[in-house]
């Protein structure tokens, strides 16, 4: 790597503001806990039902974090662990039962699902009013048409981080050039729609995008959700850009890294989210908020 003294840092501040997702998530959970208190006054304890199919180690860690957050904020969680031999019909039957259960406000089927189960069929079966992941085409359609609905937790959490940063530093996505790397329904697509709705000029990049470095070099805001370790080189970042790293990868030495070359990027960025401790905790806190929103809407009790 180029020595710091030899780098062309332009007008960069050394170092970027750290977008501390752990701290922001704690604040969001405290806010949601208050909202759930208002639901309790109305006689409702929100319920989240989670299905974990198979034994993917990362999924087990994520689901544990979600159940723990439910306990903290006062959501009643139900976790169903199912073997990887579970059939699609069995999983659809469970979703149907949760759709019909009045105590269940939110349904989450942890992804990825084992081979042989059609992910789309499962997502499509979840009642849109209980779709706290925001992956159902109904909710993605509402987002695409700029209407309120349940929004996927990771991109909603990113918007929250940008809002907290924006309030502190006088920054807004409006009028900015944003580059989103990745086009999944879990992150990239809803992220690009949220930023479009927030008046950014959005470019969606992916594995077939030529000159990724050039596109990123033009961006005032980079959201990296490519799923490729350290794909985004620090030297590509425009000086003064805001950088959000959605990736999380285990390295050969046992440590974690994101989709962005963090050490080099933070020399050029105005603000950057770390990995771990950035987007990850915000995703879970936003899931809690989605459960509160779903319960509020379904039970007709205002929480804000
Ligand atoms: N797997 C990785 N992230 C997510 C998520 O946000 N929701 C679900 N259901 N599965 C995931």
Description:
With 304 residues, the chain is an alpha/beta fold. The chain folds into two domains: 44-133, Rossmann fold (3-Layer(aba) Sandwich); 152-280, NAD(P)-binding Rossmann-like Domain (Rossmann fold), CATH 3.40.50.720. Helices cover 41% and strands 14% of the residues. The strands form three sheets. The chain has a six-stranded parallel beta sheet with strand order 1-11-8-7-5-6. Strands 3-2-4 form a three-stranded parallel beta sheet, with helices on both faces. Helix 6 crosses helix 10 (279-299). It starts with 16 loop residues before the first strand and ends in a 5-residue tail after the last helix.
Low-confidence stretches: none
Looking at CATH, the homologous superfamily of the largest domain is NAD(P)-binding Rossmann-like Domain
Q: What does the radius of gyration come to?
A: 20 Å
What is the CATH C level class of the largest domain, in words? Alpha Beta
Separate helix tally: 10
Cofactors and ligands: guanine
What's the helix-strand series? EHEHEHEHHHEHEHEEEEHEH
Give a quick account of the main beta sheet: strands, pairing sense, barrel closure.
Answer: 6 strands, parallel
Trace the largest sheet across and list its strands. Answer: 1-11-8-7-5-6
Structural class: alpha/beta
